[in-house]
Structure formats: structure tokens, C-alpha cells
């Protein structure tokens, strides 16, 4: 899916809450230094990279946070940071600001806690009513919009590890159809005992999980301040691997996207994948190296430097590329590629041009 340069969405601000800390600079410093975050034990004893010292009530106070779960807190905090970077005053016009969030299921911990309470209580309906909203997938997006007064379209996207790129595409469509003037587009994942156990059993072994929220401000190119444009969303493509050849499907997806957008592979400055699957044998990484070479693929550290962030992986990858690209000399290589693959066979790729479209 591509669009004319004038109508292509641009990214003009971004932020991240991650195991590296709070905000864009903390994340960028961690990525540039390629340092590993401090790990903590998870539910089954698997290591986990968590956001340091994050507590919902300590950050937002006790009012309106009694039932706010961790993934909602991370999302609300990231949106707060991004709105501050936009210099949007608290009572400013937010009527046409949309919000799109990617996540796996929302809070697995909230779901498990609610189910446990229903099973172990004296009666099945003896549960905390305030806990009900936290068990649904779109709770975090809804809370962020309510907390910050965002009155534009609100959507939650779930598509496995390709979620972040699908969320970008959804935000792109909101802008293209003029359903929103600006969109905050992000992806969030929490670390919890429930998620640790689910991933442990799904993978059949240990894995280092991560958590956090990466969020971007998207707006139409013709209404954005050219001086603030960090990247232009040139195109997004997605496919399903039906024959078991994940490498071939990814190769076809990226090649088709480049051809449709009229961009030669030699113009790609950096390419980052989703780190799938965990371990040494990574067909996604091998495919990107085949398409673009080692220098382009190694320019950005692996996205699982902060652990496996599941649905947030692709947008943390995009944040990593923008961190490395900031202030770098790109020459004629003015494009970046972000890909994601999931074990259900879904594949997605995004092509962005650094800075404004020329």
C-alpha cells in the first residue's frame, strides 16, 4: 500500500518506555551503546528485562489508578510523554487526535487474576467489578484516550509479532481518509508472571522477555512542520506464509514493496527484523542480509536487545532505527526497512524514507 508523497503520513515525534528507562533519549542511548539491560527473574525463573522502577500508582497517584494494570500504565505514560514532546497544552484541542495501539492480548495478568478470583471465590460472581475493564484487550487504548482527552478514533490491533506494522498501517488509513488529523500510534507489552508462564509453555523452554511501549506521532505530510519530520511512511505490505517457506515469503514481501514504491535496494540505509525466532538460526535475519548485505543489516542492534517484546517488537525496531539514524550521514541511502515475522506464518514489512519525501 503506497500513497502520493503529499498524502503520505510522516513521523514527527516518538518516545519509548523500555528497560533502558523513560523517554526517547534513554532508549536511544541504550540502543547506540548496545548495552544490555538489567535482567530480573520471571514467573518460571526465566530472565526478564523490565522497565526500571515502574509503578502505576507512584507515577500517576492513587486517584483513578486503583484498577489500572501494568500495560495500561505503560501506555498512558508513553502517551503522556509524547503529548508533552508535541508541546500540546493540557487543555489544548484534542478533538481530532486518534489513538492506535498494538498489543498481544492486553494484560494476561489481569485476565488470569480475574479468572482465578471467579473460580476460587465463594460464588463465581464474587469478583471485583473494577477489575473487569482490565481484562479486555482494548483497555489500555481506551484508558490512554480517556486519561489524555483524545477524542479521535481509538483502535486496538492484535496481529502477533507483526502487530506494530499493522498498527502503523491502520494509523496511515485513518489519516488518508481524513478520519483524524493526527494519530498517536504505538505498541505495548507488559511483563508479568502470567505472560512469563504462557510464553514458557508456548515456546517449550526459557526465553528472555521484555516489556515497554514505543509510540509515534503520525500526521499528513502536507500539514506537518518539515523541520520536525523524522521519517516518511512510504509503504507497508503483509502476507501469509502457507508453504512453510518463511524466508521466501519475507523475500517476496520486501521485494514487492520496494518495487511498488520504486526504491532500489541500494537506497536502503538500514534494515531491522523482529528477531524471530529466538536462537542462532534466524531465517528473517538471513533474508535481510541476502537482500541488503551485512553492513545495512548490522547497522542497528538486534531488537531483542531489550528482550522479546512480542507485539511491540516491530515498533521498538523502528525506534531503534530512528535512534541510530539521528545525526548519521546517510548519503544516497535514504530509506529504512522494518520487518516482522510470526510463528503463525504472518509476515509484514514497512518502508520509510528518512526525513521528508523528496
Features:
ten-stranded mixed sheet; 11 helices; 34% helix; 3-oxoacyl-[acyl-carrier-protein] synthase activity; 3-oxoacyl-ACP synthase; transferase; single chain; three-stranded mixed sheet; alpha/beta; 2 domains; Thiolase-like; Peroxisomal Thiolase, Chain A, domain 1; globular; 358 residues; Beta-ketoacyl_synthase
What does this structure look like?
Pfam families: ketoacyl-synt. GO terms for molecular function: 3-oxoacyl-[acyl-carrier-protein] synthase activity. This is 3-oxoacyl-ACP synthase. Residues 55-214 form the Beta-ketoacyl synthase-like N-terminal domain. This protein folds into 2 domains: 9-226, Peroxisomal Thiolase, Chain A, domain 1 (3-Layer(aba) Sandwich), CATH 3.40.47.10; 229-354, 3-Layer(aba) Sandwich (Peroxisomal Thiolase, Chain A, domain 1). It has helices at residues 24-33, 56-60, 70-85, 108-120, 139-148, 163-176, 193-203, 246-261, 283-292, 294-298, 313-325, and strands at residues 9-18, 21-22, 39-41, 47-49, 97-102, 154-157, 182-189, 209-210, 212-220, 231-240, 268-272, 335-341, 346-354. The chain starts with 8 loop residues before the first strand and ends with a strand. The chain is of the alpha/beta class and 358 residues long. The mean pLDDT is 91. A hairpin with a 4-residue loop joins strand 12 (335-341) and strand 13. It has 11 helices and 13 strands. Strands 1, 2, 5, 6, 7, 9, 10, 11, 12 and 13 form a 10-stranded mixed sheet that branches. It has a 3-stranded mixed sheet with strand order 3-4-8, with no helix packed on it.
Amino acid at each position: 500500500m503506497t500513497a502520493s508523497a503529499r498524502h503520505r503520513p510522516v513521523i514527527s515525534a516518538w518516545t519509548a518506555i523500555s528497560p533502558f528507562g523513560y523517554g526517547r533519549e534513554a532508549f536511544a542511548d541504550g540502543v547506540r551503546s548496545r548495552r544490555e539491560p538489567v535482567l530480573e527473574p520471571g514467573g518460571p525463573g526465566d530472565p526478564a528485562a523490565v522497565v526500571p522502577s515502574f509503578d502505576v500508582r507512584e507515577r500517576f497517584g492513587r486517584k483513578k489508578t486503583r484498577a489500572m494494570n501494568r500495560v495500561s500504565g505503560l501506555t498512558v505514560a508513553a502517551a503522556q510523554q509524547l503529548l508533552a514532546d508535541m508541546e500540546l497544552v493540557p487543555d489544548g484541542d484534542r478533538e481530532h487526535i486518534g489513538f492506535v495501539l498494538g498489543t498481544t492480548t492486553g494484560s494476561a495478568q489481569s485476565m488470569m487474576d480475574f479468572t482465578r478470583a471467579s473460580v476460587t471465590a465463594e460464588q463465581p460472581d464474587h469478583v471485583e467489578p473494577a477489575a473487569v475493564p482490565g481484562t479486555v484487550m482494548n483497555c489500555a487504548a481506551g484508558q490512554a484516550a480517556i486519561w489524555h482527552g483524545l477524542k479521535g478514533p481509538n483502535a486496538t490491533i492484535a496481529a502477533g509479532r507483526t502487530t506494530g506494522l499493522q498498527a502503523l498501517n491502520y494509523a496511515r488509513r485513518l489519516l488518508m481518509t481524513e478520519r483524524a488529523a493526527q494519530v498517536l500510534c504505538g505498541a505495548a507489552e507488559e511483563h508479568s508472571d502470567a505472560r512469563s508462564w504462557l510464553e514458557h509453555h508456548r515456546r517449550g523452554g526459557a526465553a528472555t522477555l521484555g516489556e515497554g511501549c514505543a509510540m509515534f506521532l503520525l500526521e499528513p505530510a502536507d500539514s506537518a512542520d518539515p523541520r520536525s519530520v523524522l521519517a516518511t511512511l512510504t509503504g507497508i505490505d503483509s502476507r501469509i506464509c502457507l508453504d512453510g517457506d518463511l524466508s521466501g515469503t519475507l523475500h517476496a514481501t520486501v521485494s514487492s514493496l520496494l518495487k511498488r514504491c520504486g526504491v532500489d535496494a541500494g537506497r536502503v540505509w538500514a534494515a531491522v527484523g523482529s528477531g524471530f525466532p529466538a536462537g542462532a538460526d534466524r531465517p528473517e535475519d538471513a533474508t535481510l542480509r541476502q537482500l541488503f548485505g551485512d553492513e545495512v543489516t548490522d547497522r542497528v542492534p538486534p531488537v531483542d536487545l531489550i528482550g522479546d517484546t512480542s507485539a511491540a517488537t516491530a515498533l521498538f525496531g523502528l525506534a531503534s532505527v530512528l535512534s541510530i539514524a539521528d545525526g548519521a550521514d546517510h548519503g544516497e541511502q535514504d530509506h529504512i526497512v522494518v520487518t516482522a515475522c510470526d510463528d503463525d506464518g504472518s509476515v509484514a514489512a514497512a518502508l520509510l524514507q528518512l526525513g521528508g519525501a523528496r
